[in-house]
Design brief:
Blueprint lengths: L2 H14 L3 H23 L5 E3 L2 E3 L1 H30 L2 H7 L4 H31 L6 H28 L3 H17 L13 H8 L2 H13 L5 H26 L7
Antiparallel strand pairs: 1-2
Helix pairs in contact: 1-5, 2-3, 2-5, 3-5, 3-6, 3-7, 3-9, 5-6, 6-9, 6-10, 9-10
Amino acid sequence: MDLLNSYRLAMRNILVNADPGTMVFLLMMPTLYLVFMGYMFGSLIGGIAVGGSSIDYMSFLSPGIISFQTLTAGAVAGGMLWSDRRYGMFEQILSGPYTRAEYLLGIVLTTMALAIFGAIIMLIISAVLTGGLALTVAGFALIIANLIIGSVFWGAFLLALAAISKSNQMYNSIQVIILFFASFASTVFYPVSTTAPLALRLVVDFNPLTYVANTVRAGYISSFTPALLDDEIILVVVTAAMFLLSILSYRRVRIGLK
């Protein structure tokens, strides 16, 4: 496998998605969440306990929105496979000097790049809204590392979904449901209380986006507690499992749509 070929495919994917519609999806929706929910709920919610300290709601929400970028970037990555299959680009790419493995790695690199790009924009917006950030070097490194892991998970998940979907409409419909379900059934927007219904708490605990949000939030507020290691282990394990599953699904993708 030629890594340079994967890099070329990733650059091509990024350029294809550098259109106003995709940028609105990647940046506008998270920004609206950050502004409206941050100020509206922030005026109603007091301090939130995280990692043994109390933070305001905007400081809780900001890293959650940053982690949300892994999901939106993964949605774009999954859409790339279906778009390429629909318009015959997948067949043309594989008939050239590119292999399936290089194409897959190109999708993964695209997801990472879009997630990190979106996260940095959200960090800048967060700094403006909160009057500045107190990020440490270790905290920033933790954020980037978990954005990469999280983007691999969601990129692999939605790539597998695109691989098994029978139509573009089916893929888009399921993707929208996953996008909203995964984001709201996680700790992106709010902490999970022990008084919440057990069924909801279990859904949140089984949602990988919860662990992306928890680890990114730990880096955002520089809270390095023992619970962070547990979240990291869970996130790495489920990401590795999902990546292997996506490879198996991707191998079954045929040239064309039939």
